[in-house]
Amino acid sequence: MPETQNIEYKSSWHEEYLDWICGFANAQGGKIYIGKNDKGNLVGVADYKELLEKIPNKIKNQLGITAEVNLLQEDGKHYIEIVVAPYSVPISLRGRYFYRSGSVKQELTGAALNEFLLERIGKKWDSVPIPNVQIEDLKPETFEFFKEKGIKSGRLDKDSRNDTPLQVLENLKLVDKNILNRAAVMLFHPDPEKFVSGAYIKIGFFRTNADLLFHDTIHGNLFEQIEKTMDLLLTKYTKALISYDGLTRVETHEYPKDALREALLNAVAHKDYTGPYPIQISVYADKIMMWNYGRLPENWTVEDLLDKHSSQPRNPDIATAFFRSGYVESWGRGVDKMKNLCLEAKIPIPTFSCKGNDFWTIFRKDIYNEQSLKELGLNDRQVKAVLYVVEKGKITNSEYQEINEISERTASREISELVKTDLLEQGGSFGAGSFYQIKTP
């Protein structure tokens, strides 16, 4: 049996393996076999009698826990099994905390350690109290905004309109004995950046990755940030097609606004606020890239996110307030909602990427039409070539020359420009076998 998240093999005992025992105790528990190599093949241990007394004492004295230590025998060879149970309290080894993730043992430090310790006492980052902030310091207008949205969505009853700020906070469980928690400050304080670095949003319009044309920073509490950001996205950073249904003006946005709002709300609710980095939105002529500092729940992949899944917000108190206001649905439906809205709008479904603490949501327009391609600054020959690739799947340099009746030198220059704009990418081998195709996200 190979090593797994819950199984580790060691040929012989070394005291440094207490790190692994600590990691198992802080995770889901597991077993360590002393006397087996990395492939799980039995090599045996000669000093098993000494180890049967030494290992339990080391675990108890240095970790403060007990573990089941068993002597096993196979094919005439002895080996030792150490069974470590998961602990609900944090376990440290000489002041250091280890954690088993997958088949890797890692030491928890900084923000990761802070989050781990909070979870062990039943708290999340946004539920931690902030002393010396009074209810009077919060913004009355935001409480009115929250109540009106909640009543309109049916998540709050009409009598809630008369609730005081204290009653609102108590109903949301954001205050305990008049001490506000972080979520209350993030949601209702006029300037949460006084308490949390990076608690704002940056948005910029880029011609290329290195060419920023203009930008904005959005401050205020989270409700204000969401409303201001959505307004900028829909009025300054993207366009809307105007049409009329009788006398009624109809705006059709380049991206479905409810999908953008859902992505923004996800970024805010799932952001790891221990990192002093703002949410960053990069707008291009053909796409919107939304980034937040944060990672998926443990053992999740992007594929898990795309499947039906439970709702596990990093900041549940903030997420609950968003739900009660009518901003978001529960039960982890946000990704499906974004996908369906994009399909209805006949644009590509959004893509998601998570590497370390970099989480991206990317929306793309259907730009492969004559009007959109010309708006990107392409000349007539380049537009014709891109549409040719859309129809045929690829284009070679000689085909570019043929359909446009131009020289090889001109074709090479214009194809190179298309590659630089990220519309096309080179495929095949270099030289005679090369061709160009639509660049994949």
What's the helix and strand layout?
Layout: E1 7-10, H1 18-26, E2 30-34, H2 48-63, E3 68-74, E4 77-84, E5 97-101, E6 104-108, H3 110-120, H4 140-153, H5 165-171, E7 175-176, E8 179-180, H6 182-188, E9 201-208, E10 211-218, H7 222-237, E11 240-245, E12 248-253, H8 257-270, E13 279-283, E14 287-293, H9 302-306, H10 316-325, H11 334-344, E15 351-355, E16 358-364, H12 370-375, H13 380-392, H14 397-404, H15 408-420, E17 424-427, E18 435-438
Parallel strand pairs: 1-2, 9-13
Antiparallel strand pairs: 2-4, 3-4, 5-6, 7-8, 9-10, 11-12, 13-14, 14-16, 15-16, 17-18
Structure description:
The protein has 441 residues and is α+β, with helices and mostly antiparallel strands. Among the domains are: 7-121, Schlafen, AAA domain (Methyltransferase, Cobalt-precorrin-4 Transmethylase, Domain 2, 2-Layer Sandwich); 201-218 and 229-296 and 329-364, Heat Shock Protein 90 (2-Layer Sandwich), CATH 3.30.565.60; 370-438, Orthogonal Bundle (Arc Repressor Mutant, subunit A). The chain contains 15 helices and 18 strands. The chain has helices at residues 18-26, 48-63, 110-120, 140-153, 165-171, 182-188, 222-237, 257-270, 302-306, 316-325, 334-344, 370-375, 380-392, 397-404, 408-420; strands at residues 7-10, 30-34, 68-74, 77-84, 97-101, 104-108, 175-176, 179-180, 201-208, 211-218, 240-245, 248-253, 279-283, 287-293, 351-355, 358-364, 424-427, 435-438. It has a six-stranded mixed sheet. A four-stranded mixed sheet has the order 1-2-4-3. A hairpin with a 7-residue loop joins strand 17 and strand 18. Helix 7 (222-237) packs antiparallel against helix 8, helix 8 packs antiparallel against helix 11 and helix 14 (397-404) crosses helix 15 (408-420). The radius of gyration is 28 Å and the shape is flat. The model has no long low-confidence stretch (mean pLDDT 89).
